[in-house]
Amino acid sequence: MCVDRYNVIDFNRGDIIKLIINTPGTYISKSGTRFKLKNGENVQEIPAKKVEQILITCPSSISTEAISLAVEENIDLVLLKMNGKPVGRFWHSKHGSISTIRKKQLLLSENELGITLVKEWISKKMENQTDFLKMISMNRRDERRDLIKENVVKIDDELKKVDSVSFTQNIDEIRNTIQGYEGYASRLYFEMISKSLPEKYQFNGRSRNPAKDYFNCMLNYGYGILYSQIERSCIIAGLDPYIGILHVDNYNRKAFTFDLIEKYRIYVDKTIFKMFSTKKIRDDFFEEIEGGFYLAKDGKQALISEYNLLMESTEKYHGKNMEVQNIIQSECHNIANRILNW
């Protein structure tokens, strides 16, 4: 990873770059086939061919020519809020949902496939939570070990309830039931996560906009980055990220990305838990505001770097070693095929 005075550049395979704009006032323009970054007297040029993604995380400016260059080179250009959630993104017109998938996605909230997918994703989320808690408990030699085991059993009970939900005429009839099971399991899970942290960083449940503590502050930003990645994977696979089934956004609109992200949240959870447990957190990672905290520049830099390392790590998937980010993309393609073939 190369860090200049103003911005962070993450180098992946073959010096492919993820460019993170995290200093206010940065201006991005086009210089031939290169991106030109300027902030005060500092000027930097980066070949577009080497850039995989541009994340703009703070108040900055970008020229229309630079946007066009990103689109032409199929570079993912994402604008993020302070809490890490994407405001918007630019992508090539060759991506995007095809009409057949969109039409069938609209029917998912009313057919058996939609219920099946939701149950699979929520069940996987709960399985991930219990597996992670079991792993944590192995390293505890005090009363927390038994407490974690007790709560794992309770989460397993909620998982069984989700599995027992049967297909009805409309997702609206079972939405509150499924979300009730999911919500209770998550409360138990985060209570155990908190108790497993160093005392300084323990927290009282989930909090958002703003976060009330350091852990939730990191978690919210991490989920925002993950949301952006899930959205991009949906677009590439031809899925419409805004036609959802179970979960709704702040405007009470169903959002497919909110549904699908559930099974992948564990990647962010593990990354952030590790950072807090291995003394990689500093007080200057956070900015205190009225009512809570936001992630500061150095905190964003640290989290994004750890997140990228995890996404580029490999896992066994259908008998092959695959990078996590490629597993997510592959599963989005599989979902699109299931919807098309229904």
UniProtKB/TrEMBL annotation:
MF-aspect GO terms: DNA binding; endonuclease activity; hydrolase activity; metal ion binding
One biological process term in Gene Ontology: maintenance of CRISPR repeat elements
InterPro entries: Cas1, CRISPR-assoc_Cas1, CRISPR-assoc_Cas1_C, CRISPR-assoc_Cas1_N
Keywords: Antiviral defense, DNA-binding, Endonuclease, Hydrolase, Magnesium, Manganese, Metal-binding, Nuclease
Pfam families named in the record: Cas_Cas1 (PF01867)
Cofactors demanded by this protein: Mg(2+); Mn(2+)
EC number: 3.1.-.-
Positions that bind Mn(2+): 182, 247, 262
Job description of the protein: CRISPR (clustered regularly interspaced short palindromic repeat), is an adaptive immune system that provides protection against mobile genetic elements (viruses, transposable elements and conjugative plasmids). CRISPR clusters contain spacers, sequences complementary to antecedent mobile elements, and target invading nucleic acids. CRISPR clusters are transcribed and processed into CRISPR RNA (crRNA). Acts as a dsDNA endonuclease. Involved in the integration of spacer DNA into the CRISPR cassette.
Subunit note: Homodimer, forms a heterotetramer with a Cas2 homodimer.
Family: Belongs to the CRISPR-associated endonuclease Cas1 family.
This protein's name: CRISPR-associated endonuclease Cas1
Organism: Methanococcus maripaludis
Gene: cas1
